Amino acid sequence: MKTPKVSLEQWRVLQAVVDHGGFAQAAAQLHRSQSSVSYTVAKMQEQIGMPLLQIEGRKAQLTAAGEVLLRRSRQLVGDAIEMEAMANNLEQGWEPEVRLVVDVAFPTTQLMQALKQFVPLSRGSRVQLNEVVLSGADEALLERRADLVIGSQVPQGFLGDALINVEFIAVADPEHPLHQFDRQLTNEDLRREIQVVIRDSGLHFKRDLGWLGSAHRWTVTSIDKAVEAILNGLGFGWVPLHQVQDYLEQGRLKALPLREGQRRHASLYIIFGNQERVGPATQMLAKIIRENCFEW
In whole angstroms, what is the distance from residue 235 CA to residue 253 CA? Predict the structure, then answer.
């Protein structure tokens, strides 16, 4: 691997000469002598093998090559400063990555808004987001694959706080046979039709949610796919109200007139993967998520 001929400090000096309009001004800003600044720039040009600056009157101007290289050098110096800041954050216990596992029933708007607010406060911590269904959240906790989880229950051995209640509603396409009875529907009516079910993403502790009385079932892997299947008349199902509110208002979906059980509620909880060793980035992200759910 080749060793760079020019150091980051030399690029910083060149930037100061350009930004402040000359060697004397740069020397004042850098708290160095003018001769030291002049020597640094001259040495740079010698090492690179081409002129980067040309003197016009009393002002130093970049050459065409100098403009290209200076633009790239600003990125390099900025990256170096950011890397040093990240190292300092790591030294203070600020984790490099937060593994966030979220049940698909959690509202996307609240999630994206929370992540957007977290970015400028993250100090370089990345977020690894994984969406799961039902027991997938439990398994992520039990297998220590998550730092922060939003799930539909708190597994034994963990502590969690209630976050939001999600309302589910039974819907079907307006032209679906279930909407042709012109009366309240019973379980027997539902058993004759195809139910669209969202598959539990867990592998070891699978559990069901909601009514599963239909002998005819289409299973999909996400809420989005379930909504699409129902929109296309492939069956009926219970889906989060916030996911289909617009379709209901537009008349593209219609709530099933069930005698009972048309609407159901599921609680979602926020849970730390390791309660005893929660890093500052994970704590901050959890706080932001809670704040975005206050008015839900």
Answer: 12
The predicted pLDDT at position 211 comes to 67
pLDDT per residue as tens digits for the range 195-240: 999 888 877 667 666 667 777 889 898 899 999 999 999 999 999 9
* Per-residue pLDDT at 268: 96
Note the Cα 71 to chain centre separation in Å. 30
CA atoms 32, 79, 282, 118: torsion sign: positive
Res. 67: pLDDT tops 70: yes
Query: What does the pLDDT read at residue 118?
Result: 95
Whether 155 has a pLDDT exceeding 60, the answer reads yes
Structure tokens at 217: 């079932």
For the chain, give every domain's residue range. 8-91, 97-296
Q: Say yes or no: domain 8-91 is CATH 1.10.3720.10.
A: no
Q: What is the pTM of this model?
A: 0.69
Which CATH class, in words, describes the domain spanning 97-296? alpha beta
